[in-house]
Structures are given as structure tokens and as C-alpha cells.
Amino acid sequence: MSTTDQGVEGATPGTDWKTVQHSAEFAQLRHRLRTFVFPMTVLFLAWYLLYVLLADYAHDFMSTKLVGNINVGLVIGLLQFVSTFAITGLYVRYANRKLDPIADKIREEIEGRNEGAAA
């Protein structure tokens, strides 16, 4: 059985997923998700590419010592991890405020429609 055949908790096998997919709420949910994900992905990839290019072509700059044996390359490399956690935190906040209310509304409509059909 494929994952698409397993259904969703609270949804009956008769749920019309095409109707849900073409609803205005679902389109709004996809738009809001893409509004965050695509720019953030481009930003992070550009940041990572900058790090790789600096590491490859700016050896003197990246090996500049800041404190003791800590150099610019090490700091920028560690900032890659920091930026990953920051993006994750931003996404969670964004999802809680902008995505989850719409997703909850869609889920309630689906579950409510199914309860009405089952009665």
C-alpha cells in the first residue's frame, strides 16, 4: 500500500482529495508556505556558496586569526550551523502564525464533512 492510499486520521475513505486540493484555503496555504520556503532556501544556499567560495579562493582572508587559533574560516563555518538553527526557529514561528491556522481550518472542514457523511 502506498502512503497516498493510507488516508488521513479522521478522514473517511470517501474524502474527495481533489476538491480539497483545489480549494481556496489549500491554495492560500501553499502560497504562504512557498512565500517563506523559497526565499529562505535561496538565502541559505547563497550564504553557503559564499562560504565555499571564500574557503576555496580567499585563503588569506579565511586564515586570518581572530583569537588564539580561531580564524575567520572557523567562525564562518560555525555560523553555518547557527544560521540553520535560526532558520528553523523562524520557520516554526512562521508556521505557528501563518500556516497552522489555515491547515487546522482545512482539517476541521474535512473531518466535519466526514462526520456529516457518516451520520
TrEMBL record:
Transmembrane stretches, start-end: 36-54, 66-92
Key words of the record: Membrane, Transmembrane, Transmembrane helix
Lineage top rank: taxon: Bacteria
Name this protein carries in UniProt: DUF485 domain-containing protein
